[in-house]
Amino acid sequence: MADRADRGALDALREAVRVSPDNLPLRRHLAEQLLDAGLLLDAENEFREALALAPGEAELATSLAEVFLRQGKHGAALAALARVGPGEGPAKAGLIVAKALVAEGDVAAARPRYWEAVARDAALADAEFEVRLGHSPVSEPALAHALADVAPPVDGPSEAVDEPKAGVTFADVAGMEQVKQSLRMKLLLPVQQPEMFAAYGKRAGGGVLLYGPPGCGKTHLARAAAGELGAAFMSVGLSDILDMYIGSSERNLHATFEAARRNRPCVLFFDEVDALAARRADMNRAHNRQIVNQFLAEMDGVESDANEGVLILAATNAPWYVDSAFRRPGRFDQLVFVPPPDMAARAAILALLCREVPLDELDFRAVSEATDGFAGADLKGVVDRAVEAKLQEAIRAGRPLPLSTADLMGAVRSARPTAVAEWMGTARNYVMHANESGVWDDLLPWLGGKRR
Fold first, then answer.
1. Does residue 78 fall inside a structural domain?
2. What confidence tens digit (pLDDT) does each residue in 277-303 have?
3. Chosen domain end from 271, 306, 337
4. Which of 256, 294, 402, 449 could form an S-S bond across to 444 if both were Cys, CB 3.0 to 4.6 Å?
5. Are strands 334-337 and 206-211 parallel, antiparallel or unpaired?
6. Residue 412: predicted pLDDT
7. Helix/strand/coil (H/E/C) assignment for every residue in 97-139
8. CA 204, CA 338: separation in Å to the nearest integer?
9. 327, 323, 335, 321: which is closest to 209 by C-alpha?
């Protein structure tokens, strides 16, 4: 923070700017001094005013982005530099973009921006940040050679082993405390406290099946679990496994598990798993049944400790179509219902979505009350719509304008929830007519019923 002498100099600069508000060099100097003094909010305001005097100036945009980055407003930092492409503007712009992208979880996009910035200005090299990028600070070729050792076979699936999403943990998942606790006990704590679990004969590994309506955060939860643990993360889609040639899908599935085993601890995430693990009784082709058999064999492991340290997560909107054999102990023996957000969770989600947007005093509770039945994806659509409308106003005004409760409520009035109600209708049929074993009891409170 600034000492007394510094504050006196800053006050003098402020007075000079007040007297001459259109003096761009003077306002730029004040903004830079505020930034150096760590007065980030004041610096942000001055850089915004300077940009209003010189719209599109790359150096000012870079300085404003740096202020945002230091405040943790990573999305705002990226927005400030949206018009500064690779090789344009100050080299430092590329470094700021890279750091913001890593904080947002997009490590792959961050790498080329960082190395381009360092190539332009070697003084920007940051060995600690290079570790977060997953790169040796020695050289890019050396890293490429090292990564080749953990890559899947050429004829295997195309998915890559990703670093854990930087900055994405359970703190970034609003609500769902019971779901998070279930994942901690099943997936995280056995890795974090192996001695305690070993005393009870439990090892790290196993699987959890996340199910619930579309758009309620199942994939986000999986990434947050990997980030919470600091584990590698592999996201597997249908296109990574399924192949038209007989036997190829099974080989792809085996290669996927082998890649996860080489990179343990690893969170191996299967999205839309019902398509890979469907009930064999419903299949009319032996080839499809063989894929399910291969999946079951990989989850069991040829050796007793084959999957130790491989944490298998899967997500589905249709758990009732998953073969019951997957629910045996050691496989997906824990089903975790990821519910649509309740009112408190909706308010928390809205606050998270708006944390990097200029805000007025917002009543998130009022907005959450007006969005009953909205999934997390629906709420993101509401915020995106409100931000787009406010951005148009800001462009006309020539300066950033804060988002208000009225802006969000206006977006809510033009939005409709997508699939929660329809999904709950389908779930009600299974709870009412196919729940003899009690497997769907977690749904009862959401459908107006009671637990047994």
1. yes
2. 776 665 555 566 788 888 888 887 655
3. 337
4. 449
5. parallel
6. 92
7. HHHHHHHHCCHHHHHHHHHHHHHHCHHHCCHHHHHHHCCCCCC
8. 23
9. 335
- Please, which residues have CB within 8 angstroms of residue 376's CB and are 6 or more apart in sequence? 174, 215, 216, 217, 220, 341, 349
What token pair was written down for 222?
């999986």
CATH number at residue 39: 1.25.40.10
In a domain, 156, yes or no: no
What φ, ψ does residue 374 adopt, rounded to 5°? -85, 135
Nearest to 206 by CA among 242, 182, 236: 182
Assigned token pair, 284: 């009319």
Which pLDDT does position 450 carry in this prediction? 53
Token pair listed for 115: 């190395």
Decide if 435 contacts 441 (C-beta within 8 A): yes
Cis check: omega of the bond before 265, within 30 degrees of 0: yes
Domain end position, chosen among 307, 337, 367: 337
Tell me, yes or no, whether 164 lies in a domain: no
CA 261/CA 329 separation, integer angstroms: 20
Closest CA to 160 of 151, 168, 169: 151
DSSP 8-state assignment for residue 186? I
Determine the pLDDT at residue 161: 53
- What domain range is 344 assigned to? 340-444
The answer to whether residue 148 is domain-embedded is no
Tell me: do 203 and 260 sit in the same domain: yes
How far out from the chain centre does Cα 119 lie? Answer: 29
* 64 and 176, same domain (yes or no): no
Calculate the alpha carbon distances from 224 to 51, 214, 347 in Å: 36, 18, 20
Q: Is 442 exposed, middle or buried (0-12, 13-18, 19+ CB in 10 A)?
A: middle
CATH code of the domain in which 359 resides: 1.10.8.60
Backbone φ and ψ for 138, nearest 5 degrees, come out as -75, -60
**What does the chain come to in residues?**
452
Q: How many domains in the chain?
A: 3
- φ/ψ bin of 321: left (φ > 0), alpha (ψ from -120 to 50), beta (otherwise): alpha
Same domain, 280 and 350: no
